[in-house]
Amino acid sequence: MTAPGAAPTIEELEAQEDRLVFDRFTHDDAWALGSLLVELARQRQAPVAVDIHRAGQQLFHAALPGSTPDNDAWIARKRRVVERYGCASYLVGARFRAKGTTFEESSRLDADAYAAHGGSFPITVAGAGVIGAVTVSGLPQVADHRLVVEALERFLAR
């Protein structure tokens, strides 16, 4: 396990994805998960926007004090990475960095439409695969990623 504040390793990121899998994911689950994320962010006075999409439909969105319209643009860019690669936006960026390059340099995707920065995590349903994404924007990318993972861990432990 990496030290607090340090970037997680690729192995840790992959283990998170293996572990954080839903049996099902409903509209009510989106509301509960989104509300949990908002609660955690409020406790920390984090100036974030929170978004949950499933199958192309936005099921939850909240913008907390201090967030800006730029956070919504970042959410869309990070979510597109999850939709395209089927894994966390931070993991995609980490895999490019491990190859000695960056997502922006080597993905051949439009940087105005895609961002492999931390904060978007796949909603994976057992037996169905990735069906959506939960995304946070407003903190440094590792902190965005960790906030989403913490919320998913708490939600799935219920």
From TrEMBL:
HAMAP family for the chain: UPF0303
InterPro entries: PduO/GlcC-like (IPR005624), PduO/GlcC-like_sf (IPR038084), YBR137W-like (IPR010371)
Family: Belongs to the UPF0303 family.
Phylogenetic classification of the source organism: Bacteria, Bacillati, Actinomycetota, Actinomycetes, Kitasatosporales
TM regions (residue ranges): none
Signal peptide range: none
Identification of the protein by name: UPF0303 protein GCM10023336_05950
